[in-house]
Amino acid sequence: MRSSVILPAVLLFSSFLSLTEAQVTTQQPFPPGYKPPSETIATSAQGSTYVPMDSWIYPALDRLHSLGYLDSAFMGLRPWTRLSIAHMLEQSADRIDTDTGNDEAKSIYLAVLEEVQPDVDNATELNHPSGQLESVYTQLRGMSGTPLRDSFHLGQTIINDYGRPYEGGFNNYTGFSARAEAGRFSLYFRGEYQYAPSATGYSPALYTLLSCNVDLIAINPTTNLCTPNPNQATIPGGPIAAANNARILEANLSYHLLGHEISFGKNDHWLGPDRGASMLWSNNAEDIYDFEINRVEPLRIPGLAKLTGPFRYDFFVGSLKGHTDPNDPWVHVEKISFKPTHDLEFGFSRMVIWGGKGHEPITIHTFLKSFFSFQNVTASEKFSRTDPGARFGNFDFDWRLPYMQKWLTLYSDSFVHDDVSPIAAPRRAGLHPGIYLAQFPYLHQLDLRLEGASTEPTSHSNPDGSPINQGQFLYVETVQKQGPTNKGFLPDWVGRQGKGGQAWLTWHLSGNEDIQFMYRNAKASAQFIPGGTTQNDFAGSVVKRIGKDIEVKGWLQYEQWKAPIYATGSQSDTSGAAQITWYPRAKE
Fold first, then answer.
1. In terms of CB atoms within 10 Å, which end of the chain has fewer, N or C?
2. Is 162 helix (H, G, I), strand (E, B) or coil?
3. pLDDT digit string (tens) for 431-478?
4. What domains can you pick out in the chain, each with its CATH number?
5. Contact between residue 88 and residue 108 where contact means Cβ atoms under 8 Å apart
């Protein structure tokens, strides 16, 4: 690794800082039906559950932020707790009330406030806990044709879906979520029944080619011959049995201490400002079980705040599943984000994958070795029991552009292997830039978002510009060949050595209702997958509320894809889904 810019030791040190929490006071009177949260949000002594990343709240608050409000939000560090969201709203309440011509902002504010207000009003104590059934839902999904479900190689038809099983035919996901708080403690659970039909899967010939020639995994070190491994979760080898199981999507117990949520369990992470992908960690794959220390409220250090502004940080460590080379490695991730101004946020992240059966044990010693190692190591050390692990760096920013703070937001996510930060090695980095127009002139209910994607670094190319890394740079490593996959899925749908992008055009019916059209393109290099791959997805969706407690969502997606290594000619599939969600009202 190259020289460090920011030592992750800062994150652990900051976790023990004890600073006075900011007190939040009541704002000016509001018009009828429009009010701020209660007088004081006590963030220092009350536990609060996280809002899951697939909630309608995040795109709503993303838009509120891009309309010029929600200055204390850190877009590159999510999920947020319910009390953190209430705190953000309270700090924006007075401006939203007094600014003119901001009906869209008020609509979003009121919709989100109605969701989190009960958490502010009903503080709990250890001997007076509070529990609630949060949601009950069912999703019916039909798919025709042959979809793609292979983010490590050929691509995905359905993205950012917690690694749920899906195949051609009828699919169903029915579940519920519940939460409880008791003083500093909070508990969250979300589980569901999942059904997906059986499928043919990849042929033995394709499976062997991908495993041996592309991934370089199933190679016998003695004979140097290919030995296909039918248990490799990163390749959907056939035949694929029908999925008919119960799964825990999220389950965590948390304790609030000095502005931190210290938790253990299965929890969402989205570590980037983009809407369509997060290069370091997202809900594209199933969540892992981890231990986490998350600074959920912005921290200001006197003196330093004049330079960096408030900042937040997060640390988690847990085990990755579905790996065969080596089996069951662990991963730890650190991120710190700063807001030097109301309009600018930037963050640095680091991810290390280490250990695994047959390579090195998971101990405090090997953890500390991976945590504090930043330099390149020799091959003999790399393949020994003192290997510091596969190390990846990340940098992202979110910037509301000058003079257009209520209109345009520019942001980007970037990811690099074997360097501390993409800033130090921009030509070796993958990129996810984006721009968000939060409203159109005279059409304030309409917004447009555009995002690009590339995991094909420019420095890894021949003189004529053709790539030469053959998918063996980003998201993979010499020892940890299956990278940050969990049960076969990468954090980012663009995959290895790929390019693409997404676009969304959304008409907002209210703060939590909309009509949306989406286009997505993804291409894997022919230097990585023989013949390359191409995907073009077109989708439309509608979200509507029936009363305040029932949400109905329907969407339709048409996909065209080409993957000569898998099927000849142009292929297509169509996905249609309907989901109904009941949100029981909290008792006042």
1. C
2. coil
3. 999 999 999 999 999 999 999 999 998 775 555 555 556 778 889 988
4. 9-199+240-582 (2.40.160.130), 201-238 (no CATH)
5. no
